[in-house]
Every structure is written in structure tokens, then in C-alpha cells.
């Protein structure tokens, strides 16, 4: 687990627990991951029900559900992992209230903006590029993965997006746990390269919802979510990003039905806002 760049966290991390961890679902694509002494926030979105986000080109969406917690109530964060710069993934609340010294790992498109508004510890990744995050005896490698936010010309006008692979382990040892976060993507050819490079994925979080822009899907609906689940073949899959905004047109119930029909219920864990998924990690 060595990379071109390392983010060394100043906090102590003695007796890091590699045997268990948790995922707390805030809402939309926002989760708090806690494992091996790390606390990670993804795609911070803390607008309330009734608030609107701007998606560009005059398009807006209205939030339908409140986040499970307010941003002020988050635990101390080691870093933020941001899939892309869209109003429902990094909103005006996050821009205003996150500590500007919080490290943020994202695309270059996103970090360029974040630097302009005062964030001082941004780290941009190209697709397939890693960064190592070190905290005491624990090391986490984050690798940016390919995502396709929209088909053809539509994809070219949407913000560039990255999925992420998180590989946790002790310093000097092989990865103990692999966690995949899809980002806003459709199923595409390069998606199949991910499990070839990163086999034995323990946990996958898939951005679903069947979001439409100009009538065209820009995130996975139930059918694509099932296909992505089969491609990644993770031990456990958690669907997120499925019911918070008006442009979501593929409800979670559709995905549940597809999973049940495929006989894969035992491979999926469903979270509602405010739920925590606790997981155990056996020794490899």
C-alpha cells in the first residue's frame, strides 16, 4: 500500500479496531464511515426538505427529506470524500459550515472550486490514481475509479465524477477491508475493470435513484443497480442516493424487488435515514 502521495493525519490512532466498523446513513449520498480509527464523510448534503439545489443549465431539484443529523452534530472528521461537485453532493451548507482545513479528496474539477472558496487541504485524483491516508498504525488507500454520470453528449456537460475504492489496513500489510463507493454513475464498460483490479470487495455502496435530467437517466435505476451489484460481487451491498430529491424516478422498492427476484436478498443491507450498519471484518 504505497502511493504517489500521502495524507498524514495528525490525530493519534493507537489500538485501531480492524475487526469491526460502521456506516451511518445521513441521507442522499451522505454517509459517515467509521473503521480502523478513521472517520470519513462522503458527499456532504445537509439541506432540508423544501430546499432547492441547482444542477446547472437552469435545472433545479427540491429536497424531499431532511438529513438525519445536522452538520454541526457530526463527529470529528478525518477527511471528506467527494464524488463530484453537484449541489446535492456538496451543498451551500457544507461550503459554509465545514471547517476549511478539513482534507477533501475529489476530482480536479471539484477541488479547483473548493480552493477558490477557501478550502486549504484539497487533494485531487485522476481516474485509477491513489492517495494513501495514514493515521497512526492504520493506512487507508483511496483510489479514484471511473464513473459515467450521463450518456454521450449529456455526460460531457455534467460535472466529472469518480467512484472510490477504500482499502484499509495496517502499515506495511495487505489491505484488510475493501469498500467501494460508486458515485453518480451509470453502468458502463470500464465498471467491469474495477473488480478485476480490486477483487474481494467487502462492502459496496451504490448511488441509485434513477435520476433523470432532460428525460435521460444520469444515475442507476433498479435494473442498472442490480447489474452493478453483480459486477462488483461485494459481500454486502448498501443502496444509497435513492429518495431525497424530486428528480429521483426509480424508488428503492424497485431495487428491492429486483434483488428479491434475483435471489440476492442476503447480499444487500437496506438503510433508512439515521440507520447505522455495523459490520465485522474477518482476518484475510
Automatic annotation (TrEMBL):
Family annotation (Pfam families): Lactamase_B_2
UniProt cross-references to SUPFAM superfamilies, sorted A to Z: Metallo-hydrolase/oxidoreductase (SSF56281)
InterPro entries: Metallo-B-lactamas (IPR001279), RibonucZ/Hydroxyglut_hydro (IPR036866), UPF0173_UPF0282_UlaG_hydrolase (IPR050114)
Residue ranges of domain Metallo-beta-lactamase in the record: 27-241
Highest taxon, organism lineage: Bacteria
UniProt-recorded name of the protein: Metallo-beta-lactamase domain-containing protein
Organism, scientific name: uncultured Rubrobacteraceae bacterium
Lineage: Bacteria, Bacillati, Actinomycetota, Rubrobacteria, Rubrobacterales
Amino acid at each position: 500500500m504505497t502511493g504517489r502521495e500521502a495524507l498524514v493525519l495528525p490525530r493519534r490512532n493507537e489500538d485501531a479496531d480492524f475487526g469491526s466498523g460502521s456506516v451511518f446513513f445521513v441521507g442522499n449520498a451522505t454517509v459517515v464511515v467509521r473503521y480502523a480509527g478513521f472517520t470519513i464523510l462522503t458527499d456532504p448534503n445537509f439541506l432540508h426538505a423544501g430546499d432547492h439545489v441547482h444542477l446547472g443549465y437552469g435545472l433545479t431539484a427540491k429536497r424531499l427529506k431532511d438529513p438525519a443529523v445536522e452538520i454541526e452534530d457530526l463527529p470529528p472528521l478525518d477527511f471528506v470524500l467527494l464524488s463530484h461537485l453537484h449541489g446535492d453532493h456538496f451543498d451551500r451548507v457544507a461550503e459554509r459550515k465545514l471547517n476549511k482545513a478539513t482534507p477533501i479528496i475529489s476530482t480536479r474539477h471539484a477541488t479547483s472550486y473548493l480552493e477558490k472558496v477557501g478550502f486549504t487541504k484539497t487533494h485531487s485524483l485522476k481516474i485509477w490514481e491513489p492517495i494513501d491516508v495514514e493515521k497512526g498504525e492504520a493506512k487507508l488507500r483511496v483510489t479514484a475509479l471511473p464513473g459515467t454520470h450521463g450518456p454521450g453528449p449529456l455526460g460531457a456537460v455534467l460535472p466529472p465524477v469518480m467512484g472510490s475504492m477504500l482499502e484499509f489496513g495496517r502499515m506495511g500489510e495487505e489491505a484488510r477491508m475493501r469498500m467501494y463507493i460508486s458515485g453518480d454513475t451509470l453502468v458502463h464498460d470500464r465498471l467491469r475493470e474495477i473488480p478485476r483490479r480490486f477483487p474481494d470487495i467487502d462492502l459496496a455502496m451504490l448511488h441509485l435513484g434513477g435520476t433523470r435530467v432532460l428525460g435521460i437517466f444520469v444515475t442507476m435505476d433498479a435494473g442498472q443497480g442490480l447489474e452493478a451489484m453483480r459486477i462488483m460481487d461485494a459481500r454486502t451491498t448498501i443502496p444509497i442516493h435513492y429518495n431525497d430529491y424530486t428528480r429521483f424516478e426509480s424508488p428503492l422498492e424497485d431495487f428491492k424487488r429486483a434483488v428479491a427476484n434475483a435471489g440476492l436478498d442476503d447480499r444487500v443491507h437496506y438503510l433508512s435515514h439515521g440507520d447505522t450498519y455495523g459490520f465485522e471484518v474477518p482476518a484475510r
